[in-house]
Amino acid sequence: MKNSMGDSLRRGLLRLGSFFRKRPLDLELDAEMQIHLDLAVEENLKRGLSASEARRQALVQFGGVAQAKEGQRAARGMPWLDIALQDLRYALRTMRRDYGFTLVAVAILALGIGANIAVFSVVDTLLLRPLPFHDPQKLVWIAPADAVGLSSSTYSADAYDDLLTMNRSYEDVTGYYAFSTSDNIKLTGSGEPTPLTGIGVVGNFFHVLGVEPELGRSFTRDESIKGGRDVVLLSHAYWKRQFGGDRGIVGRSITLNGTPTTVVGVLPETFDFGAAFAPGTKVDVFEPIILDNIRNEGNTLALIGRLKPGVTLAQSQDEAKTLFPKFYWSKKYADSAGNYTARPTELKQYVSGKLRRSLITLWCAVGVILLIVCVNLSNLLLARAAARSKEFALRSALGAGRGRLVRQLLTESLVLAGMGAVLGLGLAYAITSYIAHQGSLALPLLNEVKVDGTALLWTLGISIGAAVLFGLLPGLKMSSGDLQESLKDAGQGMSVGRSHERLRSALVISEVALACVLLVGAGLLLRSFLRVLDVDLGFQPSHAAAIKMDYNDGGSTEKRNAIFEEAIRRVSVLPGVDAAGISDNLPLERNRGWGGPQAKGKTYRKGEVPGAFVYIVSPGYIEAMGMRLRGRDFTWQDNMKGESTVILNEKAAKFISPGEDAVGKIALINGKEVHVIGVVADVHETNVEGTSGEQMYLPAMRDEWGPEGAELVVRTKLPPAQLAGSVLRTLRELNPNQPAVEFRPIQGIVDRAVSPRRFFVMLVGAFAGLGLLLASLGIYGVISYSVTRRTQEIGIRMALGASAGRVQMGVLSKTLKLAMIGIAVGMVASILVANLISSLLFGTTPTDPITFVVMVVLLGGVAALAGYLPARRASRINPMVALRNN
Amino acid sequence: MGDSKLDLLQGTLDLMVLQTLAAMGEMHGYGIARRIEQVSGDEVLLNQGTIYASLVRLQHRGWIAAEWGTSENNRKAKFYSITKRGLKQMAEDAAYWRRLSSVMGRVLAMGEEGGER
Q1: Cβ pair B49:A7 closer than 8 A
Q2: Which chain B residue has its CA at the smallest distance from A73's CA?
Q3: Alpha helices, DSSP H, located in A286-401
Q4: For A597, which of A268, A310, A523, A667 could close a Cys bridge (C-beta 3.0–4.6 Å)?
Q5: Residue of A877, A856, A717 lying closest to A810 (CA atoms)
Q6: Of A2, A11, A28, the CB nearest to B60
Q7: What pTM was computed for the model?
Q8: Does residue A39 sit at the B interface (CB-CB below 8 Å)?
Q9: CB neighbours of B98 closer than 8 A, spacing ≥ 6?
Q10: What is the pLDDT of residues A480-527, one digit of tens each?
Q11: Residue B5 has pLDDT above 70, yes or no
C-alpha cells in the first residue's frame, strides 16, 4: 500500500476538519442512515413482510445504529481528542462540584511547582547555562590553585606582559584591576559631587569577553598607553540612572575625580560586571588600565584568558606549570622572578563552581517538596476516590473499560497539575524577579535569574510528571475495584476499604519520612548558619559604620596627617560617637597582600615567609572596629619624627616570635626595621568561614606606606543611620568635594559575606516548613477520614461504654504510630543525606544529636497536633446521632 | 468464528466496497451493503451499519468520491463512486488478495495430499 507523506498529511487535515465540523457531519450521517433504513424497510415491505416486521428486520440487518455512528466518527475524526475533550469537560465539571478539594489541591500543587520553577531558574542561571559572554567555554580564570581572596590570585603588570608574549595557549589574555572599592570615583560638574564605582580593565577586556558596547565603541590601543586621552565606558544601569539614557552622551566629556573624561560608549544591559566577577557589588564605569602606571604597584591584575581553538584547558594548565615561574614580580628586581604559579580553570567554575553543592542540595530539597506534594495529592485523590467509588462502579457497569477510567482520572490529574502549574508560574515569576533584584546578595549572576523558555519546558515536564505520579496510583486503585465490592462498600460505614486505608497510611508514612529528611537537612544547615553568625570575627561589627572619605593631600604625608587628624577629632566629638579611626581597607572587603613580617636577625628559606594582609590605619581605627588589642594603639606621634611602628595580629606575632610576646620586638617589613607596639586578635579578613592569614596594621602617618583611600570608621551607640547626616556634614565642612557616599554599617559588610549561606538556609528552611505543613495535612486527612468512616463504629463503642478519653487516645495513638514509623524511616534516610551534605556544614557534625532530637520532637509534635483535631472530633461523637444517621 | 457466517477480516470490507463500486458504478450506502450481501451469498456476517466507517475512510484516502443525488425511486441519497486512484488501489489490493488466497489454498491443501498426519 502506498502511503506517501502527502497522503498522510491530507488525511490528517481531513480528520482535523471533521473534528471541527462535527455537527454538520453528524447531521449528514444521521440523514444518510435514515435513508438507508427507509430503503431497507421499503425492500422488506416489497418482500411481503408486515410493517413492524419489515422495520425490525431492517434494524437487525443494520446492526447497532449507535455503534455504527461511533465507528464512522472514529474513522473520520480524531477519536482520542474527542475522548480527551469529553474527559476534560467531565473533569472540569467534577472539580467545580468539588471546589473545596480543587482549591486545596491546586494550592498545594502551585506551591510545589512554583518553588520548583523558581529554584530551577536559579540553578539554570548559576550552574547550567553558559556565562553571558561570547563562546564562554573558552574563557579561563588564571590564578594559583590555592588562591584565597583576590590578593593571592593577582599578577603584576610585568607578569601580564610576559604572559601575553610568551604563552602559546591563549588567543588573548585580559585582566582587570582587582583592588577597586565601591564609590571610588566622584562625578562633579553638575551640582553636588556624586559618588560612583569605577574599575580599571585592560584595554582588550570587552573584546576578549566578546561584549560589544550597545552605543559607541570599546577602548582603542592608544587609550591604554601613557599619555592617551582619558576615556570611560558606562554600564547600562549607570547610563540610565545618571544620564537618563541620553544617547547623546557618547563623545561628551564628564568630570571624574576632577579630570575631564570622554565617554566613548555604553555597555549593553546584559553585561553586569559585578554579577559575574564581584557578586553583590555594582560597577558604574570602566576605564582602560595604563599598564605603565601600575607597574610599581605589584600584584593588581586579575587575569582572564581566551583559549585558542583546539587548545584544551589541561594543555593550558600544563603550560602554566612551566611558564608562570619565569615571570617577574617586577623587572626592576632581578630576584623577583620565580614566585608565580597558576592553574587556569574554566571561568564558569570560578564564578559559580563553589556554589555547585549548595545549588544541587537546594535543587534536591525542592524536588523532595514536589515529591511530598505528589504523595499528598495521591492521598487526597484516594480519599476522594473512596467517595466516588459508587460513581465509578456505575460507569464501569455501564461499559466503561478500565483503561478509559484510568484515562479519565489521569485527565483530572493533568487538569489539576495544569492549574497548579499556571499559578506556580506566577509564583515563580514573583520569586525570581524578587531574587534578581537582591543586589546585596553576594551570589553571582543573580541579575540574570528569570523564568525563561527553558524554565517553561521544565515546568511542562514536572507538571506532567507530577500528574502521572500522583494520579496513576489512585487511578489504578479505583479502576481495579470490583463492582460488587464497590457498590456494597459505599453502602454502609462499616470497617470496610481496609486495603484502601493501608495504602493511604503507607503514603502518609512516606510523606512523614520525606519531611523528616528535609527537616533534618534544614536543621543542620540552620545550625551551621548560627555557628557562622557566632564566629569570632576579631572585630565587633555591630554599632559601627564606615564612610568613604574624600581628601586631597597633594602627595604630602604631613598634609594628609593634618586632614586625618582633624576629621577624626571633629567626628569624635559628635554626640553619640564613641571612637573614630581611618583605614584604607576594611575586613571582608578589598584586601592587599605584601610579604609578611620577619623576625629581625633570622634568615628564612625562600617561600618560608607567608604573605600578610596590609591595612594602613590611623590612631583610633583599632578601637573603632572593636578589635582586641594588647600593647598600645598608634598615636599621631607615630609619624616620620618617631620610630617606625606596626601592630600585628596574633598569627603574624606568633610567626616572628614563637613562644614569646611579640610586643616590643623588632620585625622586618619590606626590609625595614619596624617596632611591634601591639598585637590584635586575628580578624577574618577574607571570609567568615575560613581561617585568618597574617595581618599587619601600619600607621598612615609615615611616608613608607601610603594609604590607598580612606574609610572613616565610627563606633557609636546610636543606630548608624541617625549619625549619617552629621558625619557627612562634618566631612563636607572640611572638604566641600566630599561626595554623598553611603554611611555603611559594618554589620552590613558581614551580612553580605554570609548572605549566600543565609540565602540557602532560608530557602531550604522554607522548603522544610512547607514539607512539614504538607505532611501534617496528610496525617490530618487520613486520620480525619478514618474517623468519619468509623463514626458509627465509634458511636457503638461509646454506647457500649467507651469513654471520650479512650476514643481520643485510640485515634491519637493511631496517628502517632503512623508518624513514628515515618520518622524512623526518615531518620535512616536523614543520616545518609546528612553525610552527603557534610561539606556544606560549618561547625556541625552530620549526626548532630541536637538537630536530630529537635527535629524528631518537632515532627512528632506537629503529627500529634494533626491527629488531635480529628481525635477530639471522634471523642465528641454523640452515640445516638451516629447510630441514627445510618 | 461464527458457526454459519464469516467474520470480516480487517481491511477486507474496504476492498469489497471498492470492488462493488468498480463493478456497479455509482451507488448509495444501502445499495453497496445489499450488493455485498448478495454477492457473498449471505455468507458474510455484515452489520450494514459498519459500511459507513469504511466509506468515510475510503473517502479520506481519496479512493472514492461522494455526492448527494436522487435515486431511481426519487429519493435523496448520498451516492458513492470510485475514483481513478481508487481503481488503481483496488487493482493492487485485489492482486494481493489473490496471491494470499492462492498461497493459503496451497498451504491448506498440503495436509490433505501429503497425508503425513
Answers
A1: no
A2: B53
A3: 313-323, 347-352, 356-397
A4: A667
A5: A877
A6: A11
A7: 0.79
A8: yes
A9: none
A10: 655 555 555 544 444 445 667 788 889 889 999 999 999 999 999 999
A11: no
Do A63 and B48 count as a contact with CB atoms less than 8 A apart?
yes
Per-residue pLDDT at A3 exceeds 70:
no
How many H-runs (helices) and E-runs (strands) does chain B carry? 4, 3
Percent pLDDT > 90 in chain A is 51
Find chain A residues with C-beta within 8 A of B34's C-beta: 43
Interstrand relation of A743-745 and A711-716 (parallel, antiparallel or unpaired) = unpaired
Q: Do A75 and B57 touch (CB under 8 A)?
A: yes
Whether A383 contacts A375, CB under 8 Å: no
Render A617-652 in DSSP notation, one character per residue.
E-TTHHHHTT--EEE----TTSSTTS--EEEEEHHH
pLDDT score for A532:
92
Average pLDDT of chain A is 88
> Given the DSSP bridges, would you call strands A694-699 and A611-617 parallel, antiparallel or unpaired?
parallel
Residues of chain B in contact with residue A66, where contact means CB-CB under 8 angstroms, are none
A199 band by pLDDT with thresholds 50, 70 and 90: very high
- Cβ separation of B75 and A62 shorter than 8 Å? no
Give me the helix-helix angle, A791-799 and A804-836, nearest 10°.
130
Residue A381 clears pLDDT 60, i.e. is over it: yes
Which pLDDT score, from 0 to 100, does residue A644 have? 94
B75 CB neighbours in chain A (<8 A) are 35, 38-39
Q: Among A35, A61, A76, whose Cβ lies nearest the Cβ of B77?
A: A35
CA A402 to chain centre: 45
3-state SS string over A162-228? HHHHHCCCEEEEEEEECCCCCCCEEEECCCCCEEECEEEECCCHHHHHCCCCCEECCCCHHHCCCCC
Q: Give the Cα separation of A512 and A771 in Å (integer).
A: 9
φ, ψ (nearest 5 deg) of residue A239: -60, -45
Closest CA to A142 of A99, A188, A175: A175
Q: Greater confidence, A792 or A767?
A: A767
How many Cβ pairs within 8 Å bridge chains A and B?
81
Distance, in angstroms, between B37 CA and closest chain A CA? Answer: 10
By residue count, chain B amounts to 117
- Chain B residue numbers with beta carbons less than 8 Å from the beta carbon of A38 are 75
Q: Which residue among B48, B57, B92 sits closest to A61, beta carbon to beta carbon? A: B48
The tens digit of pLDDT for each residue in A86-128 reads: 888 888 888 888 888 889 899 999 999 999 999 999 999 988 8
